[in-house]
Amino acid sequence: MSKLIETKIDRFDGGIVNDPRDSREAIARIMSNFNTISSPHKMTPYRSSETGDSDATNKRIENFVIARLNTDPDFAIYGLGTTAGTGIEIYYKDLTTGAANDLDDGDWTETANNSTAGAFNRNLFVYYPRTGYIYGSRAGTHIFQYDPDGGTVLENTHQALTHTHVGQGVVHSKDDILYIPYFNRPGPTAAIARNNNTTWNNTALTLPTHYIPTSICEYGNFLAIACAHRDGVSNSRVFLWDRNSSLTTIHESIDWGTGSLIILEEIDGELIGISQKGGTGAGFADIPNGTAPHNDVVLFRKLIGNKAVKFLELRANHASTRNTTQIGPHKQKVDNRLYFRMLIELNGSVRDGVWSIGRSSFDSPLALIHERTSNNNTALVTGDVIYGFLMVGDYLFQAQQASGTYAMTKTDDSTTGFSHNSVYETKTFNGEQHGYDATYYKDLVEVSVMTEYMPTAGQITLAYQINQNIGTSSWTTIFTNSTDNSISHTANNVESGGTALPKDYKEIAFRILSTGGAEVTGLSFREEVKEKRYVAD
Question: Fewest C-beta atoms under 10 Å: which of 31, 161, 428, 479?
Fold first, then answer.
């Protein structure tokens, strides 16, 4: 005997999960280009992107920092690049709009005295307010020093520091000292260098040489140091250091589990680490990420007591080639969310761009969101390279290399700035929350998408997958709604002219595509559950 059941989704801040049948509320398989954290009961599309550097193939900017112009109270964005691949070249952009060379255009200007010979490592590009200089890595032999105002020549041999790996520097708020993690393979040497108001100490802290320091952050009074094991198989480790260079010991040594630890940051008082097995650590290309006999795995852990506890695992679903997942070492903390860049294959498609980890409220769990794609609906491919990014208010800049060509995108602030797809893909539904499971056949009777008042250019497209197609790139469209000022649209099997809703399935998933700024407030669907059939499927 059949029965009607109804399922409603009106909360979206649970984040992305790997288990398609996770029973928790508000989770999804994919959330891309939607702000789901500011208002948990609504998905608001982010603006699309446009060209962020009109001369990207020549400037080749790979990292960003905000620094103060030394002869002016104003700040600017600085980009670390080259001139057609030769030497070190630094460009800037004003933190204004409506004029030349600022946030709403694709222009970048170089200041005087900033060109020099030698390659750079894009991982290190940090501003130290106490000295008024920007510091970076030059040719693996030195730290360069750059005057943001261009008043003095870039010192490409400012501080001798031989390194095969270097991480982003951190100015600790407790002592106003710049710390830089680095590793040198011949030797070997693993250490934290320190710049105390122009006084350098290359080995303020020495680390075990079988670890490569990849990421550092403040953790209360401590400097937390993420280290990946050199063999790519043994566990990673986090060291907590009280910044006292007169002592050779550290405060705490914490086993961070399997995978190469790439990113470490404090969020809501918790220490969060992102590790990967398989794939490539973009920017740490020769750090082994272990073997991937099946699919690449990204692991999210947090510190509880003195234990690193996994709270999320993301497995790539490559069609053929493995070891293609990339996690960039660049990070940014905004409004207590950790932002980072990742390229990974999920649900049959490459997902690339800026991701985040954080909470919508103090009592909510940590949630992973795919915040912004790199280039609207044009996904990168697994051979492309992700570089640095920077969020400045409502603007986001992302640098990458696509098909061997350098490119940069930024947020489009025009009136037509919602041209891309914002995507929401649900978890798999089999009737479990109503007391049924995948042994029951079902018919989809009715499905609705609710929105805020639909803007003039707004459009919602709803599609579904069933049974063996779930988790692939194959979707069947149910309806497209672009009616101005509408707040919902419903499809059922009795309306004329509509797409026939699926019948005799066991599991179902939905995808909502939003364009033109359409905000989603809910999804509901009614199913007719039928008796079990004891036949081979």
Answer: 479
